[in-house]
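Collaborator request, handled under Task 6.
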Amino acid sequence: MPFRPIVERRRRFVVVVDDSPECRVAMRFASARAAHVEGGSLILFHVIPPVEFQHWLGVQETMREEQFEGAEELLGQISEELSDYCGVRPEIYIREGNPPEELQKFIEEEKDLFALFLGASTDESPGPLIDYFTGPMAGKLTCPVVIVPGNLAIDEIDEMA
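Structure tokens returned to the collaborator:
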């Protein structure tokens, strides 16, 4: 099979945002990579678990709206920090549901993702998303998975990126 010429394309990096310390490491690494790659851009992806309060529909909807507003505020703040750090203004995606399933759907929908960045926990297990995407799903993904060790220091990340 002959090789085809490489065509210029966007390089969209997606990083999952949650409240874990390793997430901060993965975000910094992914944003630095996006800044150093021609055509690089960054996506901040966050999943809100479904609200399970079922007694009053109005209360449930209010709780859901508050979760979305809190997520938008957090991701907006992180977006500003990362933009100040590396000059890349991230896109923001917020979904509701099971995090591994929602992330898988997102990857399938977005055809031009260049890599998925996940922060590995320093605990006994690297984390549920890493377990999910490095198991049977690994061979079915449409983009590479980059696992960023959660114990990296900021200066180590800056040297690598």
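The cover message to the collaborator said: "The helical segments are 21-36, 57-86, 99-109, 128-134, 154-160. Residues 25 and 51 are 28 Å apart (CA to CA). Please let us know whether this matches your experimental observations."
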